[in-house]
């Protein structure tokens, strides 16, 4: 014990800059596995190389710094789109963009440093440290999914979205998918001393098994929906920098009306529900000034689900309202999982109590949160789980309903995220939610990607970015409840914590054949 403490005090504060640069490069290459590229075959060996490199470090402090540098490079490459919201009004907010990017990357680096640091603490030699890093990074993904309201964006396991391996999420969810990915990537480092073909054989066998299992699930027959349901998803393509300008907002509203009242294609049925995206209309729900009448007239007797803002006293809400043909609000959902600093200022209402009202949602400075998850009862269309934009990245939120939904509806405005990676990453997460729950997901986006996603995460129809148009699509059938929809994340979080504790205990009492702690 005394020797370990002495070694810790002699440990360098950080590795050489060349090591940090290499670690950051690993992070950049790992980002290639995320949407829109989805190059898992680059991301997985890069992650394996990162774990091998970090687990060989002798000092815990060095491993932590390598984790930080890897996460920093990863965030820069995977989440550079974070600057896009600041460029909507670049003359006012553009100067903030580089600071936001660097701070966000540093935050991601901190979570990776936690993951690598847990591995360095739990393991005492290169092989056990590699296993510890795999478990520590899985714990880091779990922590990032929940702490400070959560931000489970570009998790490690998301590199599989779009491949058959993603079907495993129906059983283990996103955290289980991250854990599996990390264990596979760490296998070469955990099997140091073995012949490399044997280590690669272990990795290959695991990948083949997951891939074939996913293919089998994708090919399994699905019972058709008892009664067909057709949705019209409307994409007005209103650029964010123009959307609310007085000379444009009625023009974009007219687009919605024209697309809504267009006739179906020859031989196609009329839609049973028309959907407009998040914050689609230039009026408040409680002060429509004729807007509701114009909307229902265009819908022609068909119920209309619209993203709309509404006020209640001094508070404002980002809402989804289902409007009946007689202009009556048939169902209403207020967004409950808001974007910190984007839709509200944390502690803003608390500050208002001491006289600082500039950040308070209760006086109109940002949105107020709705009461929580709520199913929309749409009669013959079933019970629908509504998600507004950012809410689609939280799988845990889809387990808070009193009964299982029949399908999922997401309305969003991804115009804030640019056109390179942000909208595609958001769209990829919607596909994963469908797999996890075994439910079809209809997604309506202002500027794209608008799509229908079946209960296995496959895209049955889509409308790409920066296109104006509509999709008349059949709602795919639902699957029986998945294992993940029943269990959620708790079993996998408990497994990760228990495995880290056991590894830490085991490596402190065991000796490998070479006489060193393994």
UniProtKB/TrEMBL annotation:
PROSITE patterns: CN_HYDROLASE. The keyword DNA damage does not apply. The chain crosses the membrane at residues 20-43, 64-83, 95-122, 143-161, 167-185, 197-216, 490-511. It is a multi-pass membrane protein. InterPro entries: Apolipo_AcylTrfase, C-N_Hydrolase, C-N_Hydrolase_sf, LNT_N. It comes from the Bacteria. Pfam families: CN_hydrolase (PF00795), LNT_N (PF20154). Residues 234-477 form the CN hydrolase domain. Its main location: membrane. PANTHER family: APOLIPOPROTEIN N-ACYLTRANSFERASE (PTHR38686:SF1). NCBIfam families: lnt. This is Apolipoprotein N-acyltransferase. It comes from Thioclava nitratireducens. The gene is lnt.
């Amino acid at each position: 014990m005394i020797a370990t403490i002495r070694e810790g005090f002699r440990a360098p504060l950080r590795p050489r800059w060349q090591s940090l640069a290499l670690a950051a490069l690993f992070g950049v290459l790992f980002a290639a596995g995320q949407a829109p590229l989805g190059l898992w075959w680059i991301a997985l060996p890069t992650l394996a190389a990162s774990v091998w490199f970090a687990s060989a470090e002798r000092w815990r402090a060095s491993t932590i710094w390598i984790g930080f540098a890897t996460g920093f490079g990863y965030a820069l490459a995977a989440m550079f789109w974070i600057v896009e919201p600041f460029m909507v009004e670049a003359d006012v907010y553009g100067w903030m963009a580089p600071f936001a990017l660097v701070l966000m990357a540093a935050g991601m680096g901190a979570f990776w440093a936690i993951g690598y640091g847990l591995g360095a603490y739990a393991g005492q030699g290169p092989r056990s440290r590699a296993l510890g890093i795999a478990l520590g990074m899985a714990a880091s993904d779990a922590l990032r999914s929940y702490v400070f309201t959560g931000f489970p964006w570009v998790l490690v396991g998301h590199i599989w979205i779009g491949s058959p391996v993603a079907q495993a999420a129906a059983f283990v969810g996103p955290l289980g998918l991250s854990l599996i990915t990390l264990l596979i990537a760490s296998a070469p480092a955990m099997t140091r001393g073995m012949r490399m073909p044997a280590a690669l054989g272990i990795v290959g066998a695991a990948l083949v098994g997951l891939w074939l299992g996913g293919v089998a699930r994708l090919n399994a027959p699905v019972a058709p929906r008892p009664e067909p349901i057709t949705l019209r998803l409307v994409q007005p393509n209103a650029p964010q920098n123009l959307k609310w300008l007085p000379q444009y907002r009625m023009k974009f509203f007219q687009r919605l009306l024209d697309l809504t009242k267009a006739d179906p294609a020859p031989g196609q049925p009329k839609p049973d529900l028309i959907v407009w995206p998040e914050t689609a209309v230039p009026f408040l729900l409680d002060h429509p000034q004729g807007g509701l009448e114009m909307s229902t007239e265009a819908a022609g007797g068909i119920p209309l689900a619209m993203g709309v803002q509404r006020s209640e006293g001094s508070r404002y809400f980002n809402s989804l309202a289902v409007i009946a043909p007689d202009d009556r609000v048939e169902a209403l959902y207020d967004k409950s999982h808001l974007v910190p600093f984007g839709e509200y200022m944390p502690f803003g209402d608390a500050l208002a109590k001491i006289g600082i009202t500039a950040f308070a949602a209760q006086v109109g400075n940002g949105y107020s949160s709705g009461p929580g998850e709520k199913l929309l009862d749409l009669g013959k269309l079933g019970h629908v789980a509504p998600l507004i934009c950012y809410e689609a990245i939280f799988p845990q939120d889809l387990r808070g309903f009193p009964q299982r939904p029949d399908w999922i509806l997401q309305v969003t405005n991804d115009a804030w995220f640019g056109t390179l990676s942000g909208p595609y990453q958001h769209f990829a997460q919607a596909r994963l939610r469908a797999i996890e729950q075994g439910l079809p997901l209809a997604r309506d986006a202002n500027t794209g990607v608008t799509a229908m996603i079946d209960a296995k995460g496959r895209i049955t129809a889509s409308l790409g970015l920066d296109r104006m148009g509509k999709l008349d699509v059949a709602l795919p059938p639902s699957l029986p409840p998945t294992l993940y929809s029943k269990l959620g994340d708790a079993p996998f979080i408990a497994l990760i914590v228990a495995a880290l504790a056991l590894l830490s205990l085991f490596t402190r009492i065991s000796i490998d054949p070479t006489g060193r702690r393994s």
